[in-house]
Amino acid sequence: MQKSARAIELTAEQIKIGLIQTANVRLMLNKALRRTNRVSAFLSGVSFRHRGLIYFTAGLHRDKHKLKFHELDKSDRLAVIKAMRELSELTVTFPKELPDADAVINQDP
Length: 109
Fold this sequence. Notes:
The protein has one domain. The protein has 4 helices and no strands. It starts with 11 loop residues before the first helix and ends in a 17-residue tail after the last helix. The model has no long low-confidence stretch (mean pLDDT 90). InterPro entries: DUF5347 (IPR035232). Pfam families: DUF5347.
């Protein structure tokens, strides 16, 4: 007879109930995450200039730059999310330090 690593053995019914409860907790978490739209929350906290940069990268017309994320139609919102992914990938590649001294090129007078 092989000993289990568990301190308490669970019955099949207890395992079934535990799996159902776990699934319910996951559903609750997913609902909570959907209520808090992270992109909308982020964009509401950035400056108009930075939001405009993201919207420009997304290819949105300048007239739409004044709109909040939730005021955009779905295709524009998807374009904004894609642009944010692209910008995120780009900024990861930036040098860690960006000193003003790097603006000087050897050929400068």
